[in-house]
Give the backbone structure.
Amino acid sequence: MTKKDKTFFEIFLQGIGLYFSNADKFLQYMLYPVFGQLLGGIVIFYSVIFYNENITSLLINYPVLNTDLYKNLILFIILIPGLIIYLSALWKYLVAHGAVNSMTDNLLKSDRVYDLPAHTMMVTRRWFPYLCLSLMYMVMIFLTWWIPIFWLIGGVLLIYFTFIFQIFIFEEQLSPIDCFKKSTIYVQGNFWKIFWLITLVGTLTCVIIPQIIYTFLNVIKVNSALISFVAEGIQTSSLYNINLMLSAINHPPLAPIDVASFIVLIIIYKLVIQLLLPLRTICICLWYKTYCNDNDVVKKLDEKFMKRVKKKYKG
């Protein structure tokens, strides 16, 4: 079977095989980016609680600090450790979007994943354009997720921007904006195939596997322990305003255990989905390696695009 004979489903299966045959290395690579965000969030949360519990006594002892400027400054200083942990982990998570593509390329050539810092360096040595690329992509996701008018338009655009991270890694001469433009070329003529590939890998990594993990943790009683722990930190009084709004629509009031259950569910799903980032990236990278630049129509469009890019940079 030639690579042109591969269907999106076969690429999906190949991606699963490559990931799970090297899952230990990918999970190790993702530990800090994922759990560092969780740790940073926890530190920030308890820092705010510490601030709220101690700010009154601090202002009584030091009345000169009783201004908005000083109170905000104190809060910011208290939040610094948590912010450092969270933002450093978030940056490493963003870097993983690009670095895993380099790992996949190496995996296809040598059948193994090794020298992880070298793959990370493929991204970090060009950190500023990569940061710009990531921020633009995050803005697109935010608009698509939170603003209803962008749901359809943004969803379609995100499909067309599928290969921006692959292009950034493998076509280094292109700027972040050029990565977005060229990705649309690679998607032309294959929109629905790529859509179904993304749907398959998204369903597996964002729904099926997280639910399996959540169910397993529920069976071994981990979930109930976590829910009890979280519920202890939620005061019924803090839910007063929420329950007041819910009563207006005849919804039963929320108890701390209800909120805790939802929080634990979201955290477990979020952790599993983020840990499986390499699986999603591998599948997209396999499509890029299999089809992009290996199609007569794409080649013609790509030649025209690269001529415009060279002309722009010469100018």
Notes: The chain has 14 helices and no strands. The first helix runs from residue 8 to 21.
